[in-house]
């Protein structure tokens, strides 16, 4: 049975849940299309201030459907190319989405499932989470931006070791490497992510969007980045939220 993307609201947070019990929530073209469509709607919905991406039935995502890949490599490579394009459109949508996106990982995150988690802004993982980049073990290179995210986060050597060897990594391994923001007890990743999303929902959305854009653009030369920071700083300073937040901060400081 093909994995579905289920949605539900928790206050100002939209939860996207991969649901495919028979395949550990393996990725599918239907999920890619639903993911892009849902993010497009959430971007313009004023009551949605954060998104949490998680998996059902104790796992995050088992990666690509190897049976489908085995069939398409022989019978329909054009369809596989279209599927990869659709997957990468979802990855780009997550990367550019102006509101916070948090991955809540339990159990297995493998292959493209790891790429999906890395495309989120923050990653919460339960103690039992395992991250497996097993592409080389099945004769494949990475997809979904995994090599890009790992190289930026870990440097060349550590990224190559993860991608070449495909060893299983724990939540604590990834926390130590700076890839996981928070490690929590089993069964609590969604609740932990929702709490984090609630904190972020209290911050001005324009500020969060500006900071995400600046971090995404941080490879540009310093002078260009300073100019980008200046323009966003001035734009946010002119917003009513800035005046309210500055006044509230000054009042708290004067009372303290």
What attributes characterize this protein structure?
single chain; 256 residues; alpha/beta; 6-stranded mixed beta sheet; 3-stranded mixed beta sheet; 9 strands; globular
Describe this structure in words.
With 256 residues, the chain is of the alpha/beta class. It is 53% helix and 16% strand. The protein has helices at residues 29-44, 66-75, 77-96, 112-119, 146-154, 156-165, 171-176, 189-201, 205-216, 222-237, 240-255, and strands spanning 4-10, 13-19, 50-55, 101-105, 108-110, 122-126, 130-132, 169-170, 182-184. The strands form two sheets. A six-stranded mixed β-sheet has the order 1-2-3-4-6-9, with helices on both faces. Helix 5 packs across helix 6. It is globular.
TL;DR?
This protein is α/β, with parallel strands linked by helices and 256 residues long. The protein has 11 helices and 9 strands.
Q: Low-confidence parts, pLDDT < 50 over ≥5 residues?
A: none
Major sheet strand order: 1-2-3-4-6-9
What string, H for helix and E for strand, traces the elements in order? Answer: EEHEHHEEHEEHHEHEHHHH
Shape: globular
Largest sheet: 6 strands, mixed
| SS elements, strand count | 9
Number of helices, counting only DSSP H or I runs of 4 residues or more: 11
What is the share of helical residues? 40-55%
Report the sheet-strand fraction: 15-25%
Give me the Rg, rounded: 19 Å
């Amino acid at each position: 049975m093909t994995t579905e993307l289920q949605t539900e609201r928790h206050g100002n947070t939209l939860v996207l849940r991969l649901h495919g019990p028979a395949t550990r929530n393996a990725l599918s073209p239907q999920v890619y299309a639903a993911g892009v469509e849902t993010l497009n709607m959430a971007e313009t919905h004023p009551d949605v201030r954060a998104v949490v991406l998680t998996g059902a039935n104790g796992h995050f995502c088992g990666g690509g459907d190897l049976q489908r890949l085995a069939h398409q490599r022989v019978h329909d490579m054009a369809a596989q190319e279209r599927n990869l394009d659709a997957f990468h459109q979802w990855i780009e949508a997550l990367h550019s989405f102006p509101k916070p996106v948090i991955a809540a990982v339990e159990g297995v995150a493998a292959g493209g499932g790891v790429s999906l988690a890395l495309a989120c802004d923050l990653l919460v993982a339960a103690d039992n989470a395992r991250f497996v980049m097993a592409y080389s073990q099945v004769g494949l290179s990475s997809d979904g931006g995994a090599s890009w995210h790992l190289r930026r986060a870990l440097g060349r050597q550590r990224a190559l070791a993860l991608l070449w060897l495909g060893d299983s990594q724990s939540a604590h391994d990834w926390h130590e490497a700076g890839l996981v923001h928070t490690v929590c007890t089993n069964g609590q990743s969604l609740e932990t992510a929702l709490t984090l999303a609630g904190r972020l929902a209290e911050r001005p959305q324009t500020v969060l969007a500006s900071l995400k854009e600046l971090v995404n653009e941080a490879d540009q030369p310093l002078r260009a980045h300073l100019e980008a920071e200046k323009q966003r700083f001035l734009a946010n300073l002119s917003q009513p939220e800035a005046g309210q937040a500055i006044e509230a901060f000054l009042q708290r400081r004067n009372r303290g």
